[in-house]
Specification:
mainly alpha, 7 helices
Length: 219
């Protein structure tokens, strides 16, 4: 009886320890990487590229219609480009991972069924090209709407440019914060990185457009 009692304690202790570890196990943030990467990149790209495009046009054209039209054309073209590019990229990754899984299954088939169960689990975690493309295109469109809406209802040219820059800056900080929280990354560093990058893109576009006009190009 004493021997039986001694051997049952480690078993129960191990079971309790395993249960505690399972309960305390943190969420695997890498599971979010597929759609999070596509959504965050799409939204930031929509914000920065369309805002930079509109500011570049605004550097030489004070007409609000020219800015809105260029921004809308950039939204449509950019969303399609992001969706197609993401689909092609993720589909290539999918083919590579499927080929790797197929090689692993062929090597493991001679052992036991547990390996086949593991391979089926891997199939469930494979990237989805269509979801990634939709997330990227939709996120780009949502991000691009921010500068468009900021400029649509303002008549004064300088105030319009200031409104675009301010609104886009706030949105960049917000998207950086959301991406950091969902990805369990440092919030301040992520937001500052996204914001500074957006400022640089807008400033470079504005400056180069002004430079081209100053060199004698007529528009």
């Amino acid at each position: 009886m004493a021997k039986l009692f001694q051997t049952s304690i480690p078993k129960n202790a191990t079971e309790v320890q395993n249960q505690c570890q399972e309960q305390e196990q943190e969420f695997d943030y890498s599971q979010r990487s597929q759609w999070l990467r596509a959504a965050v990149l799409g939204a930031n790209d929509g914000l920065v590229s369309i805002a930079s495009l509109m500011i570049g046009v605004g550097a030489v054209k004070k007409d609000v219609k020219a800015m809105i039209l260029s921004g809308f054309a950039g939204l449509v073209a950019g969303a399609c480009s992001m969706a197609i590019g993401e689909f092609v990229s993720v589909y290539s990754q999918l083919e590579i991972e499927k080929a790797q899984i197929k090689r692993e299954v062929q090597l493991m088939r001679e052992y036991n069924s547990e390996n086949e169960e593991e391979s089926s689990k891997k199939d469930d975690s494979l990237p989805n090209p269509l979801k990634a493309a939709m997330a990227s295109g939709l996120a780009f469109s949502l991000g691009a709407m921010v500068p468009l809406l900021a400029a649509a209802f303002i008549g004064d040219h300088k105030v319009r440019l200031a409104a675009i820059i301010t609104t886009v800056s706030l949105a960049l900080v917000g998207f950086g914060w959301i991406g950091a929280v969902l990805g369990n990354a440092p919030v301040m560093r992520s937001s500052a990185r996204v914001l500074i990058g957006g400022w640089m893109a807008m400033a470079i576009t504005f400056g180069l457009t002004k430079l081209i006009i100053s060199c004698g190009l007529q528009v």
